[in-house]
Amino acid sequence: MGMEIIDFKATKCKHCYKCVRYCDVKAIQVKDERAVIMPDRCILCGHCLKICPQSAKTLRSDLDMVKGFLREGMRMVVSIAPAYMGLLKYKTIGQVRGALMRLGFEDVRETSEGAAFVTAEYAKILKEHKMDNIITTCCPSVNDLVEIYYPQLVPYLAPVVSPMIAHGKLLKEELGRDVRVVFLGPCIAKKKESKDPRHEGYIDAVLNFNDINKWLEEEDIVIEDCEDRPFTAFDPKVNRLYPVTNGVVNSVLATEEENDGYRKFYVHGVANCIDLCKSMARGEINGCFIEMNMCSGGCIKGPTVNDEFISRFKVKLDMEESIAREPAARRQMEPVWENVDFGKRFEDHSPRDLQPTEEQIREILRMTNKFKPEDELNCGACGYPTCREKAIAVFQHKAEVSMCIPFMHEKAESMANLVMETSPNIVLIVGDDMRILEYSDVGEKYFGKTRSEALKMYLYELIDPANFQWVFDTHQNIHGKRVNYPEYSLSTLQNIVYIEKENAVLATFIDITREEELAKEEYEKKLETIDLAQKIIHKQMMVAQEIAGLLGETTAETKTTLTKLCHSLLEDGSDGIYGGGEEDITLPDVHLGSGARPLSGVMTPGNTGAGAGTAGSAGLAGSTGMTGSAGLAGGIGTAGSAGLAGGTGTAGNAGTAGAAGISGNAAAPEQKKGYVHIGSAAPAGRKTGYVHLNSADLKKPGGSGGR
């Protein structure tokens, strides 16, 4: 149930363990590095709510539930604790009642009505004198403390309900069970008490003064501007003093007719209440009536009251002044109240925790490097008074080993030293004044300074601090920057990071000197290769030029020879061997192979060769002359053998060339005159003279020879 009332915001919890330290009953468990309340151990003193520096604690509010009652048209009555007199701003206390009724409540009654009946019950017990000691039971947090942690003192608890429960019973008896009773006060333990099965159903909701102030503000209601509607309580005004220290004792004394023989005193504050319980458990207290209040200063200093703005001394004075100035109106006691039972039976609610053996405690202590008693610092940083108590809590799964701050600090320092001692990279931490705060051992290898020497130096005494200063000035990090230190023959790859909390800079230097040297060597090799390639290209160009010159000369000679050959053939044909001199032999064109186009002017002097050849299966062609895979080749065929043909002749990159040189297959059978034909068969029906260079004899049709 305690878990439902107070919870922690995990995202805000910073593991400071302050709540554990200040929880006197150690009802806060640290699990997975998160503080959580153990509901079966929490006494709801609310102290953790007030001391948490991160405001990580949250308190359940019933305000939405109360508004829901109102929307559903339920009858609602407020039972307001007397502490309102010192915690709300008003001119008359009747304005408080008027403001709350404007919110929609049917009536507003003072809890001191119930306190009057509780006082009467205490008086009866005192008069009976059956109990050795009597502990008042107005404070539900005190009741939980005894039931959970000091069950041996349960017989000393006065068997009477608190004023809140008493008032709830009175109102339900008077107004009907259907009425919703809402308690308004500064106590959070009342939330748990209202759900106690022993008297559940008498209080339907619990609000604190922060809740009600928020609601009044939402509705734009100002108490001091409200109608004065006085309370109609019947009780003696002294019962309004219950919320202040010694208030219960004073109320009892006011009704006491004769001395009952009990010594009466009050105790307030968690630590004081625990001390008293310990003393009573030891049997040191006898014959006493003791008013115990868990809140230091009484209910007026409850956990929901802001200490910053409210002084318990001023509140107490204001309450006493209000009581003296405006005594409650008296009226007769309702007859139905005579049958209300205000008794309560308290029980042993102590948890059954397993207790570790001495060896188990020692084993847990050894986990935090505590091997002998003098190793136990008992610093209390973990929240437990002694190391042994913390070890027991670890055994009972209430605490974690890592909560030992000195051990974790030592461990972190050890790990940091290990990093500094073994890191292959240079690690530096520098303060904003450029003083070296940390320096890895490997730095001695590069900078010639030991760690102890470097920690006494400023960064600028070692290296140029410009990059570090830039990070300090801009709060921007540097990643993967190459920085050379020629004076140390060192090349580095640097990461420099700003640490905001410490206002320091962390830097790691990776030695890349060897990589830089290898890269330089590789670059130089590439330059050498490029230079060598350029020399080879230049040499090749020179060779190509020489070859081109030689080929040019060969081409010219070939051209001249072919020209002379063609003219010679033409001259032979003009003697009438084939045509009997009937027609002049002309050289109209040169035919290049099967299906090739005529190549005009190829065989004329000065035009054979360069730049004019047409590539084909055979012919005179080339880029700079007559080129191809084979040039002019073979011998001159005799009659009946072959013309100018062959397999291999002059060949090369330039010059006279062709797939088959100057070659062909056979002359057209109907040819009448001589001709020059370069290619396959001569065109059919040719009448004029051609020179046909073929593998067959050049012969006149019907003749028997040729040349």
Report on this structure.
With about 700 residues, the chain is α/β, with parallel strands linked by helices. Helices cover about 35% and strands about 10% of the residues. The protein contains 21 helices and 16 strands. The chain has helices at about 1-5, 20, 45-50, 65-70, 85, 95-100, 110-130, 140-150, 165-175, 190-195, 210-220, 245-255, 270-280, 310-325, 360-365, 385-395, 405-420, 445, 450-455, 465-475, 515-575, and strands at about 5-10, 30, 35, 55-60, 75-80, 105-110, 135, 180-185, 205, 265-270, 290-295, 425-430, 435-440, 480-485, 490-500, 505-510. The strands form five sheets. It has a five-stranded antiparallel sheet with strand order 13-12-16-15-14, sandwiched between helices. It has a four-stranded parallel sheet with strand order 6-5-8-9, with helices on both faces. α7 (about 110-130) packs across α9 (about 165-175). The protein is elongated. The chain starts with a helix and ends in a 134-residue tail after the last helix. Residues about 330 and about 575-705 have low confidence and may be disordered.
- State the end-to-end distance: 132 Å
Enumerate how many helices there are, as a single number.
21
Would you tell me the overall average pLDDT? 78
Rg is 58 Å
How is the largest sheet built, in terms of strand order? 13-12-16-15-14
Helix content: 25-40%
**Strand portion:** 5-15%
Largest sheet: 5 strands, antiparallel
Structural class: alpha/beta
Domain PAS: 412-465
GO molecular function: 4 iron, 4 sulfur cluster binding; kinase activity; metal ion binding
Protein name: 4Fe-4S binding protein
Keywords: 4Fe-4S, Iron, Iron-sulfur, Kinase, Metal-binding, Transferase
